[in-house]
TrEMBL record:
Pfam families: Endonuclease_7 (PF02945). This is Recombination endonuclease VII. InterPro entries: Endonuclease_7 (IPR004211), Endonuclease_7_sf (IPR038563), His-Me_finger_sf (IPR044925). It comes from Actinomadura namibiensis.
């Protein structure tokens, strides 16, 4: 048997490997080479499609793609396999389109089926449509319901129930996550900022002050800094304390976070206005307070928000209902984004007064010099975490 054969269509002599097998032929091979066979089949198929009023893509011979390469039918280019994403549903384990074309194709499909990518993601993640999210945002007056400072841009939902709660800004949404949505810890963080917790009492009893003011020459580079350890220099440069001060705070707190008492204290916490060091915190509490702007009022609003006591439905003046999330109450749709300062301050004062009026809180407070009161150390929580 010859190693070559002539194709009846193209008239070229080609290796027998370029011909399909055909039992009806004397030599057991097709009359046409694979390339011409594909052209004949494509012509017949496309003729039938045209007769039915349908369109077909341009014919392409798959066997012409070199080993380790793949053809993208969208950009019509042969590229390396690494240019294609993974897809276990396909025989080659790769997506049909290259990565840029795949992204464009998915965006077009989402636009066609869901109206927009945002609408698709909102339905996928939260079970609401883009219109419902915009309606909720309008009812809030465009403001974040927790901090009353920044425009709301993120849908917040309960991770247990999956239900949408409200629209929040990036900081408040992230702050809830850093605190792991623990209402007790968030309330304790508010009291910690106002020096009303066991930590402030311990600081006053042991150090004579509830904060460490730090050295007045903080941030300066001196010969002493260069001779000390890198941590010594970093602490002095940033917080005005040295490593011995940090270890003293850590020892007073028994190595635990001054707020949650659950995790090891790893970060020095300081006031960004007075620059005074307040204590040592874990990463979650330190970051969570920062994202909630180190504001006791915002923290208390966040705690009430998680309890479902912040955002309520009240009757609207023109009929129906509207949202209410401040004391004193105001229709959020009537307040401009830069007009919330007064409402935020009055709301914070109201929630602080409610906190101080709680009988359980007043009974657990201990009077200190200067008529200052702080709550007792939550020993049961701390022991449970050890």
């Amino acid at each position: 048997m010859s190693d070559v054969k002539k194709c009846r269509d193209c008239g070229l002599f080609k290796p027998v490997g370029e011909f399909w097998k055909r039992k009806a032929s004397k030599d057991g091979l097709a009359l046409y080479c694979k390339e011409c066979f594909g052209l004949r089949g494509a012509k017949s198929y496309r003729g039938k499609r045209r007769a039915e009023g349908k369109k077909s893509r341009e014919y392409r011979r798959y066997s012409a793609v070199p080993e380790g390469m793949k053809y993208c039918p969208r950009c019509k280019e042969i590229q390396q396999l690494d240019a294609f994403g993974g897809n276990r549903a396909n025989p080659d384990g790769r997506a049909a389109y290259c990565k840029p074309c795949h992204n464009k194709a998915m965006a077009e499909i989402r636009e066609r089926n869901h109206g927009s990518s945002r609408n698709y993601l909102l339905k996928l993640r939260y079970g609401i449509t883009e219109r419902e999210a915009d309606t909720l945002l309008a009812r809030q007056g465009g403001i974040c319901v927790i901090c009353l400072r920044s425009p709301a841009a993120h849908v917040d939902h309960g991770h247990v129930t999956g239900l949408v709660r409200s629209m929040l800004c990036f900081g408040c949404n992230g702050g809830l996550g850093q605190f792991e949505e623990d209402v007790w810890v968030i309330k304790e963080a508010a009291d910690y900022l106002e020096r009303l917790t066991w930590h402030a009492r311990l600081m006053r009893l042991e150090l004579g002050a509830d904060v460490i003011e730090g050295w007045p020459d903080r941030g300066r580079r001196t010969v002493a800094d260069l001779k000390g350890t890198p941590r010594d220099y970093k602490l002095r440069h940033r917080y005005g304390i040295n490593e011995r001060d940090a270890l003293l705070l850590l020892d007073l707190q028994k190595g635990r976070c001054a707020i949650c008492c659950d995790r090891p204290a790893e970060h020095v916490d300081h006031c960004h206005d007075t620059l005074a060091v307040r204590g040592m915190l874990c990463g979650g509490c330190n970051t969570g307070m920062g994202q909630l702007r180190d504001d006791p009022g915002t923290l208390r609003r966040a705690a009430d928000y998680l309890l479902g006591e912040l955002v309520t439905e009240v009757p609207a003046a023109g009929g129906g209902t509207r949202l209410s999330f401040t004391v004193p109450d105001v229709d959020p749709s009537t307040v401009p984004l830069d007009g919330w300062d007064g409402y935020r301050e009055r709301d914070a004062a109201h929630r602080k007064a409610l906190r101080e009026a709680e009988p359980a809180i007043r009974e657990s407070w201990i009077a200190l010099p200067g008529d200052r009161a702080v709550s007792r150390f939550p020993i049961d929580r701390w022991l449970a975490a050890r």
